[in-house]
Specification:
Four copies of one chain form a homotetramer. Chain A has 245 residues and is of the alpha/beta class. Chain A has a single domain, classed as Alpha-Beta Barrel (TIM Barrel), CATH 3.20.20. The first copy, chain A, contains eight helices and nine strands. The first copy, chain A, has helices spanning 23-26, 44-56, 82-102, 114-122, 124-137, 150-157, 191-204, 231-243; strands at residues 6-11, 32-36, 60-64, 107-110, 142-146, 161-167, 206-208, 214-216, 221-224. Chain A has a seven-stranded parallel β-barrel, surrounded by six helices. In chain A, β3 (60-64), α3 and β4 (107-110) form a beta-alpha-beta unit. The first copy, chain A, is globular and about 45 Å long.
Chain lengths: 245, 245, 245, 245
């Protein structure tokens, strides 16, 4: 029997002398690795080592392009033009793709990082530019984007395969958007609560918003944040519950 | 009748708000453009515009990877490991290649920039790592390197096509190496003198060293530095003398 | 007789191999140089040379701190926190101040650059953080900010000396804000028109908005953008009309 | 009774989202903190937090300037000119000094980092440029440099106060230089062996080289590397043995 869901995780977010995340330990419990491409994290050496690790574990590899902001880890929104979004996305996909192909692998998907992810989920022009870059890099790539957002809608209209992404460690607003991190109830940090929300999302394609309203959410892939304190425990629980059988 | 030689020029070396070079004016007078890949110059937008320009003029496109040193324009030697040389070269080739392919072009060659060029002409381990990265990116790529250096020798042994590069605006030492820029006679700045050396190099495959000794030099491609005061004039003279007929 | 106004110009905006602006030619026609501090332009060597030039011409020196965005020249707005604004401003002032003091000069003022200037003119929390950084660096520094904006208001309330800055090459909206660059009538590019607006601003402390409404504007200092095609001509006209006599 | 020695530690080497070192735990066991200044590690926010921590613990604060190489953590040697060394050192000292003064502290010393430290210990022109930058920033600053090297000799001749630095976790060659990291016996990793070498260095001003020869070494300050696995244990042992009583 197939897995019920794709479990994805952001990886390769070390940089130079600085280590981040727990990539090796998480690999057995995920299906898809989104690998940072050097603009917000991940220098060329980190990228190469992370690609090797993913190939060793037989995991699907995706590019995880970000804004050019090492100091801010790609999390600070910048007022970029659609052309800039297109150019930086194509550049980063190409860089990772060369590394993946050199090791005999195949790039499967693209998931934008942090502020670029959020911008593309909210601004149609950025979403369009980003999807076009993915398309121009390779029309068989899958775009991962926030479930229900214009990011995936526009990419699908353009003919790209897409995966609607959901989160078990973030709460939702009644309009389907994630609750901003500044909100006191933005984060779900207890593994049991994460699992409960994961079950709602993956088995019933719905979630209870912070306002107590049940909303419908399409869930093709679920994100495990590798840097949380319970990341490994949650990834294992998720994998054993939904990805085996 | 074919051109007697390949005229190449480093291009796309602007960055952000800063313009450098005279790419558009030079394009009609060269055959191959070595396009900076973001590490020493050339942000993703500059790269895209330069690729478009080269395609419009029907010029061969090469990647021009450099050391990660925007402030030093990739000219300051750094003590990098062969692994770092491999990783940064593969990364930069991939980034440019994606842009070229997205515009319907094909990447033809790779010419390392500045200090990376010099390191690969002098250190066998760096030369090997660099050639391996070119090979792993695409074994049909041509490596441009300093004529007679280990850079081209090692690449050729590895099975890569190579082009031995010569310079009309730099003097040579009796051992075939370029005279270091710190030497008072390192540079040839008068177009007539450049043309005389170009004729020696291209027609007779020889050059008179700073010590007055004639040495044999293989000349597959000749470099036009786009930022010199006489760059355009020299490129035209060179083109009309050697590339037409 | 004293000059009627302070003429300021952004300077030292070269970086590494890239030259920008026409600092040396402009120096005789201005009173205050705002020198880039390395985050959006101006590496340490450029800063040192620009400070020397300003001291040679007897011009007042100001720090011109920007967002950490070399590729975007500090012009792309970023969602920074007030703490980040404080820290990056203090850092950049300190770096320039050490260079100025080493050459026997005294830092006179601080004028934020580009997106940091705009953020501080619009967001009270950023304005406060920036003014606090100036204050903590040296309470005798003068803050230059957009005339009438919260940037100068907050700084003045904090006890800092301020200069309300006006522009002759930008149009104003009826609310006193600059017309955004995206607006077709945002820029004034003809020197005669610039001079006409400069006279309104400097002699009558008023300006005619793009909507045809006359508004009152306090003008303590006027900016000359060094990179415009008529920069030198305009600076001379301005200087001869208002700074001599 | 005074401490027999100054114990120093490199600190503030986190960057953006990446944490490095164990600054808070180590603070009670050292006298002097060398704080990274943004070029190899330590963004403005990290610098501010580290300065606050050092002031809270009553520890002396030094600037720890490095080469402009975030990706390589300032450890890759670069062929910089003396002028570049001067400019980058003065810039970084100024940036940290402004932060220290804003918090009511006083900068005590400067210790160059990594490759800049090694270059200044070996190349007289770099040593001179660096000492001049320290001098021009503030002639009362103390320069920390490799014991017996030209770095401290040149600085002392220039009139600067200096501290000859020794290492308990690195072996020495018979000429007084540190054994290069590439050598199999370069590192001393067991705390007991470190303490034995520390006693030789601090009590007897001598050390046994990797070749078995006893050499004389002046020891004004001893470095604790904060990132080693036994860093905290060693710092405590060192402090209790030499800094109390």
């Amino acid at each position: 029997m197939n897995a019920l869901v794709d479990i994805n995780c952001d990886m390769g977010e070390s940089f130079g002398a600085w280590a981040l995340g727990n990539d090796e330990a998480l690999m057995p419990w995920i299906h898809s690795a989104n690998i940072a491409c050097g603009f917000h994290a991940g220098d060329p050496g980190v990228m190469a080592r992370t690609v090797s690790l993913a190939l060793k574990h037989g995991i699907q590899i995706g590019a995880h392009p970000g804004l050019p902001d090492i100091q801010g880890f790609g999390r600070r929104e910048m007022s970029i033009s659609p052309q800039e979004a297109y150019d930086m996305t194509l550049y980063q996909i190409g860089a990772l793709d060369a590394i993946v192909r050199a090791k005999g692998g195949i790039l499967q998907h693209v998931k934008p990082h942090g502020a670029l992810y959020n911008l593309s989920a909210r601004q149609a022009e950025i979403a369009k530019a980003l999807a076009q870059a993915v398309c121009d890099a390779d029309p068989s790539l899958i775009l991962y984007g926030l479930s229900g957002s214009i990011s995936v809608k526009i990419a699908a209209e353009m003919g790209l395969a897409v995966k609607h992404e959901v989160f078990a460690d973030r709460t939702y607003q009644s309009n389907g958007a994630l609750t901003p991190r500044s909100h006191p109830k933005a984060l779900i940090s207890h593994p049991e609560e994460m699992m409960a929300q994961a079950e709602d999302l993956l088995l019933r394609q719905q979630v209870c918003s912070v306002d107590g309203e049940w909303i419908v959410v399409r869930a093709d892939t679920i994100c495990v944040h590798g840097d949380g304190p319970h990341a490994l425990q949650f990834a294992k629980m998720l994998y054993e519950r939904f990805a085996l059988a």
